[in-house]
Design goal:
The chain is α/β, with parallel strands linked by helices. The protein is about 30% helix and about 30% strand.
């Protein structure tokens, strides 16, 4: 979904729950070359959702809806290493557990706050992991 103000960019997936006054921006990444830049862009684009047409349709009398974020990471040796090396930084930006985030995305649990979910791609088929991959403590 495109956002235009105060930053311009595309958000990979936007989920809207008007009944819960919640909008979730999902950014999918197969690799992370510059973590700080990636986190900044994801945060700026998520905040820009507050100025989007889609959010304007669900504004509550008490103010704008909550905006959550999900980073969907492809489980590769490189992304697992980034998660291990920068665990504290990522945990600050995405504090919810991977399982709680996954459960919320499937509609089985309330929104836990921003989190990371992992995906495996095998023979051209992608699957979302319920928990972080082996060797990654982030999000457990």
């Amino acid at each position: 979904m495109p956002v235009h103000y105060p930053v311009r960019g595309l958000i990979d997936v936007v989920l809207v729950r008007p009944d819960r006054s919640l909008v979730v921006a999902i950014e999918a990444q197969s690799e992370i070359r510059r973590l700080e830049q990636q986190l900044r862009w994801a945060n700026e684009k998520a905040r820009a959702l507050l100025n989007s047409e889609i959010v304007a349709t669900i504004r509550e009398p008490d103010g704008p809806p909550r905006v959550g974020q999900v980073m969907l990471l492809r489980s590769t040796a490189a992304t697992r290493e980034v998660a291990r090396r920068f665990e504290a930084t990522l945990a600050t930006a995405y504090p919810a557990s991977a399982f709680d985030t996954w459960m919320a995305l499937t509609g089985e649990a309330p929104w836990p706050g921003s989190g990371i979910v992992w995906a495996r791609v095998d023979r051209g088929e992608a699957s979302i992991l319920e928990r972080p991959p082996r060797g990654v403590r982030l999000g457990r």
